[in-house]
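Objective 1b: paired records.
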Amino acid sequence: MESIAKRVMKKNKALRLVLLFVSIILSAVIYNIFLLPLSLVTGGSSGIATITYYLFDIDPAIMILLISVATALIGLMYLGYRKTIGSIIASILYPLMVQLTLPLSHLLNPSEVDILLMVIFAGVLSGVANGLMYRTGYNMGGFSTISQILYEHKKISVAKSTLVLNVIVVLLGSFFFGATNALYAIILLYITSLVMDRVLLGISNNKAFYIITDKDSEVKEYIIKTLGHDTTTFEVKGGFLEKNRKVMLTVIPSREYYKVTEGIKAIDKDAFFLVTDSYQVEGGK
């Protein structure tokens, strides 16, 4: 399995490094144009840098670099070189780009622009930047390294530890800059997560249907012969009655969603079916 992981990380390495560089530049521009002038604390090392900048006049790039170097060293101790090298690249490049793009912090005057509009725009751009970052397989270092260590040694999920760390930083920001700034930060984070999912997964062009019905042969015939799509059937056991049932799986284009749902209900009004987005479909005939 480890050899597979190595092959995955080597695939399209040049393109991934280019995307990593683009995402880092974009993140630095967003920080200097939107987050720093608005004193928005959205978590991570950038959030800490914003707090220390306004409280102690410490250069944000220096603070981000200090945090990144410290977490990278901890990562080397607990994760090893192979799992830390990706974050080390971003740990050096990101504060450098923050310093180089610092003059852009005067590009917009918060008193002359609608703050909510700036927050929305920053959230969209941050979602694009983060989505590009995660598509490369690398990360920004900093608190992301801490989350990875907690997962490796304490089995605490990365999502949970990242959320807790960011919440702590956002709460610190609310303490120093007020609840209004914290609310704007939460809005920005929410928009960022939505856009990031779209960048990572794309827009769902297909729907996956899981269907349980007593008229499985009729439903299968409708899907295969009428709509022209294939199905897969597998056995399951119900949790409550522990009764063996058949589940039919089919993936259809989103534009045919109505035909499938209404067709199933027309054949068996008591049919149970679950519909999920299907972002990638490969293989099969």
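Objective 1b, second protein:
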Amino acid sequence: MKINWSVRLKNPQFWIAIGIVFFANLFAMSGITFEEVTSWGKLGSLIFDALKNPYTFINLGAFVYVAVIDFTTKGIGDSDLVMSRLQAKSSPKK
């Protein structure tokens, strides 16, 4: 699996996608609404309980996997062009 992790980890869009996928599914699988999590302790407990539950852990892992793979390439790795980059591509010029 060839993924240019150095570029992905520096890209805020990667972390936004991971956060959305992780937390949306975490709340959906636990049956808890966002309004019910009123402290960092409750959020930590929710995450810890989810990671202890094999069903939830596997589902969260699957959703994070889907956020990581690049659908524009064959297989699960990045293209050679992406692998050669040192930073994320900026917006196209118009």
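The radius of gyration is 16 Å. DSSP finds five helices and no strands in the chain.
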